[in-house]
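User: For my dataset I need records formatted as: sequence, then structure tokens, nothing else. Please produce one.
Assistant:
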Amino acid sequence: MGGLIEAVLGEGAFLPHGVCLLWSPALLTLHALSDALIAGAYFVIPLAILRFLTLRHDFAPSYRRVAYLFLAFIFLCGLTHLISLVTYWQPLYIIEGGVKALTAAVSVVTAILVWPILPKLLTLPSPQALEESNAHLKREIQAHVETLRQLNDSRADLERRVAQRTRELIETNQRFEAALASSDVAVFSQDRDLVFTWSYDPHGLWPAREVVGRTDGDTLPSLVSQEVVRAKRTVVEGGRGAAINIEVAAEDGASQYLRLSMDPLRDDAGEIAGLTSAVVDLTERHDYETRLSALTSSLAEANARFDLALRGSSISVFTQDERLRYTWVYNTPLAPDPSAIAGRTDAELMGEDRAAALIAAKRAVIEAAAPRTLDFELEIEGRPRSFEMRLEPIVALDGRVTGLAGVAVDITERRSHERHLRLVMRELTHRSKNLLAVIQAMARQTAARSDDPKTFVERFSARLRAMAASHDLLVAQEWHGAYLPDLVKAQLAQAVDPGSEQLVTEGPPVSLRPDAAQNIGLALHELTTNAAKYGALSVADGRIAIRWRLEGDRFVLRWEERGGPPVEPASRRGFGVTLLERTVGQALDGTVSVSFEDSGLVCEIVIPASHLLA
């Protein structure tokens, strides 16, 4: 045992390493100091690596194992140099060999384990790359900070807008309720199963008071509910609005007429979630329409008697505005075409000197607002003719005189046939009174066709505006004519934008002469008014096609409606149809046909091509 210890400690036959250096102080100092410094460095480096591994917990286990082996390898290298330092004075060669063997084993294992992870180590970013990544991260952080600021600003703006929209919604709801509170309108909403989900019925128009959670079958009579449910199912399944009229019993047992307008209700995804319904009380309107129908029939009879009385007679009837421009003429001896007189004055037709007395009499009627009868002579086609004229002021509802109406009777034959003329005069006087009564009745019936004076004024004013629109185009062309596409746009502007998809116009570029422009303009106005109330323009999906063409010596203008409510021929002829088929057609020596097709109203106007400008 003692011999082993002596061998390990180098005692015995081994000499210290200093002998090899001949115990040179300089060499010993050089080697000893170098080994000491190397050993110290090898001992310090593992401490740094160990500190690094302690702080970096993100290293993978494989990296960490290699790092620990590398740490052991460096430590053993330092220990080897330390023992080498001792061997200069003490021959510890066995210990030195053992430490070197252990160092060799650890180094070999470390080398083996380092090679597989070397490619991964090479992928680690360089300091420059880390610097660039750090700068990039800083820029991204700054961008995120800016984005966060913008998001905060957007959120604040969104909150402000939401608050504003909330206030607007509250105000709109208040206005909505205020509007409905003063009108005979009720509003309801239902889901796809037609269960009422909301209602607003301040006047109790719906037969049932409490409807939320109930269906139409629970709130309406059986037959009525079947019709209503059928219509609502069509709206929900087809996605298009509809309207029907229903009759129910009011609380007092009388019939109540309601207009039910239905539109699909869509959710955020655009899917139909139910429908909304607006109910309008039409009872009063129904009563008005019943009376209006009777009055219209009477008016049609009076109009027929008027035509029968004047057809082929020597009686002329006319109206003039406050500036004495003719606005309507019937059976005039001045021209075969009454449209040649419309819009003109007596001075323009007869000359200022010959018309001076007549103009003075007419001005006196307007200024005094009193009727007047006078005799008047006029040379027509080189032959003097005598007329007895009755003038009466046209007084508006506000008491203002807006023009005059006149009846002129040709009394030329009376001078040569006195007795016969007396009989004729008595008959003419009687007829004149009847005609004046007819004219007054027409005015009354026109007013009766309107629900109120305001409606009468609006309808009458609308026709005046239609004529004014045609006149504006004629004035712009110095009364040479009017460009037909411009005339169409002007007359339809009251109901539809010329660029709208609801309107299609097609035809060659033609211009109408003044008379044709005025009458075609009036026809377009009547058709537009009818379409806006009852036809294609009364619904969003309605379409109107206006096409015109030349066929030899004829000019054809066709008005065709599509997509409007179902139409059927009227049981009576209103002013609009009469105006189109008689006044407009006859005034232009043409024909006007109006038909009620399944797809909508169709009107075709055919006039001589001579009414077009060359």
